[in-house]
Amino acid sequence: MLHNYFREIICAFAIFASSLASADAANACANAKINEFQPNPIGTDPPDTTIEILCADADKGRGSNFTGWIVSVENDKDAGQGTVDRVAQFSGKFDTNGLLVMTMEDLENPSFTLVLMESFTGTKGTTDIDGDNDGNVDDTSSFVNVYDAIGITDTASADEPLYGQQLGGIDLPFTGATEGKEPSLVYRDAVDIQVLYLVDDSATSVKKIYGATEGKEPSYRDAVDIQVLYLVDDSATSVKKIYGGTVTDLAQADFVGQDPFQPTFGSVNPSSSIVAPTPSPLTSTSMKIHEIQGDSDSSPHVGKLISVTAVVIGDFQDGDADEKRNLKGFFLQEEDVDIDADPRTSEGIYVYDPNTYIDVHVGDLVRVYGTVDEHYGETQIKEVTLVEVVSSNNPLPSAATITLPTSGITKNGNGAYQPDLEAYEGMLVKFTDTLTITEMYNLARFNEIKLVQGARPYTYTQKNAPSAASYDAHIKELGARRITYDDGLSLQNKLICNLDGFGNLDGNGTCVSGGFNTDNSPRMGDTVVDLMGVLYYKWAGSTSSDATWRVTSIKDGTVNFVKTNPRPQIPPSVGGALTLVSANVLNFFLTLDDGSSTTQNGLEPRGANNQEEFDRQAKKLVNSIIALDPDVLGMLELENYFSQGSAFNALEFLVAELNKVAGAGYFAWVIPGQSYVDISDAISSGFLFKTSSIEWLGKVAVLRDEVLSSIGIDNSTAVFDGPNTNRASFAASFKPKGGACITVALNHLKSKGGSGTGDDADQIDGSGNWNAIRLKGAKAIHAWMETDPTGGGCLLKALMGDMNSYSMEDPIMYFESVGYTDVEKRFNGDDAYSYGFDGQIGTLDYILANAAFNNLVTGASSWHVNADEAAALDYNTDFGRDKMIFNADLTVRFSDHDPMVVGFDLEATTGSPVTNHPTTGTPISSAPTDHPTTGTPTTSTPISSPPTNHPTTGTPTTSSPISSPPTNHPTTGTPTTSSPISSPPTNHPTTGTPTSSSPISSPPTNNPTFKSSKQSKLAKATHAPVAHKPTVSKTSKHSSAD
Fold first, then answer.
1. Distance CA 491, CA 992 (A)
2. CB neighbours of residue 398 within 10 Å
3. Which of 286, 240, 471 is nearest to 381 (CA)?
4. pLDDT at 35 (0 to 100)
5. Which residues contact 595 (CB under 8 A, 6 or more apart)?
6. Where are stretches of biased composition, namely Low complexity (predicted)?
């Protein structure tokens, strides 16, 4: 098959990529430097630029292979600053002088930062290391092992952002002859590579820089001392030498027998005499931390050069021996004898030290010289000029105790309420309360979770009528007792066992693949007692994890979660002879979301990205449905294509896979009689049923806008068709063997995601967006069901599915007002929930019974195997997720919604409900089956199954019970068999002709000749109208429109 060919190509590419990765990992040179380049060559820029790499190891890496990447980052202020705009991978061999020359596309004229790294995993033009354009590096997750970085500016303005020093390299000062000019040549000294020379853009001067500091910028390193940088001016007539922050102007005579103005790619660079200047004495004000912090949100000493002596309570330096807790700095706290008596002033502070001036350890007493700053609401010391270790192995200062909720609240960087913890900023703290896990949405991406004091909170409208004033009070109360528990890493998509208490470390204390997995994952509802760590206020580098209060353990093994909410091993016991189940299946698509394929109705697929993801998803879903063993199952988020025998029919495929496990013909699916249930969406809903206990009456109906006028509903505005509407409802009639028939409507109302207008705007009362359209949908569904839409004549009725409405919101209140009962609330009261969002739980998924059916219900409950689990456990593998987390055999996290399970008997224990004749009203023992063409009741005797109509003539072909519908030929429409179908045929990828009727074990390769206009792309956030940085992590395939 064609998809096997593509799989071979993908495998070959993976092997090639693996070989490159292996080559990267095998680099023998550990100290590679950017040795020479031309930021802005004299005259017309060439199509390519040459860059010389130096191996500064003792042996110069002579003869060793080297593979790396050169990346240029835009520095022009507010003009895409921080965005990667040039990318080149290269490989070569260092020569006898330790030099390797590569070429790449011409660099954009400065300002830019040139970065040399082992590997780059981002995307040119998209990857942004300074997402908020504040001049500070926020996200380096795509930069693997940075060797060197040099920032070049074209202006003397201090506002021009440079990233060289923040990335572990240097930033060079403006050296042009006139504003807007840049150095024409930059190179290191041949002897001391800390020396850089910068040739001006007229090639008339050279500047020499030694040990360049932030805001300084050379252009090439001295050949003898690479601490020296030379800057050739923009007229190439002078050279400036900067040594220890001192800029020195040089001329031709300073380079004996050498030309400092011309590039020497592939040859040893020029060198001048090197004289290290005497460092200037430090002048600073010695202060206590509580003086720096002050008694308000901001320090009264911002911009002041200070010195402070205190104990290291948190080692969060990058590049040290500890691979965990890397925030480019460390935390200090005053010794107990030095604290003040003011409870409003914090005794802790964060020291921003991106270059790791000196490696410090917890318990060190250190003296730090630096400048006071406020960064995203955090008071810190930055621009560190000196760190001295006074003594080591000191006892830690006492931890401050915090009791939640706090009396005061503030707002975080995203505008949400949070506890006022300013008095504890940067300190070692201990929470006196038992804290409960309420949210793990960002676990896979940021290794962070939400904790709350006390029990898990319910969404406001789960237990309260919508109210703006009361809702605000609710979220304030919640904000005052919620805190973020973080791993203390500034990188994204790292192994989850870096978060202390989540998974296991190996024998060396290292977090390795599989350390965190499905078996040992904590669940929402689990708790932690006496949580201790350092408290700080930071931004995680994305709007999906904004600046807020975070706590991180300072030592592995000090945080232990208690399994307060144990994982249920089997579905809930609901009694009764039969079960009716509603389940969201997390976008189960046969069309792979590979970036180029479209569904049969021309929309973007929303499920698995590749074959591996699909196999994981399908296996877990099959195992979960087998465990549920439903008599009737309504599924949401299926691929919206239901043509019999098609290789793109996800429902038919799923039934075939289930029957491979359960036995041939065990389950069958309800045939809608049309290819698409919803006319405007990529997903829709469908039924399967157990053939041994349930007979489908062959009757279905679909509620779309075309039906509204006939049921008395205003159709002047769309309710089910088009964007920002409810999905089409799908109803089918079933007859339990030995019982009365029931009509079940499967519904998926509009989500709360996005931004509505008018009545559909968020009223800030707890109902969220699109409440009005959901209520219109509810009213239409009720009116439609009153008309017996399937013609089944069933008195038993159930409405089920994802109503996207909590228990006290208008749609559910309306259904209850017209006689439907929320059966889970009937049995579980206010404790019911099926979904978690923003750390709060409630019911979005329902089975609502009319009075007749309610009389037969014996029990109802959600099976809490999805909503309480981390999204990290699902089938997704993208963004480098550890594949060892996944376990298809454990029936957990096959969706983000819990399945809803209802048990019912064939007759009520208090008296069997009476079924009336649909036209005469006379009681009968069971509803008649109407003749499929005349509509006349054919008998008043219970019918074991309806006749099967010929698929083309409509004439009944048999009155025998049907275990599953016939399979029609995919091109002629002629039935090929009346036997149960274990799987659909596989169609030829170009002709569409079936090639086999054998079960399909993997989804088809999409037809490369199929053409359709691409619709607007569907967002893929899991469950929230939250803006996510698009290139970092996908934690689920869900749209905000679900």
1. 47
2. 14
3. 286
4. 94
5. 609
6. 928-943, 950-962, 969-981, 988-1000
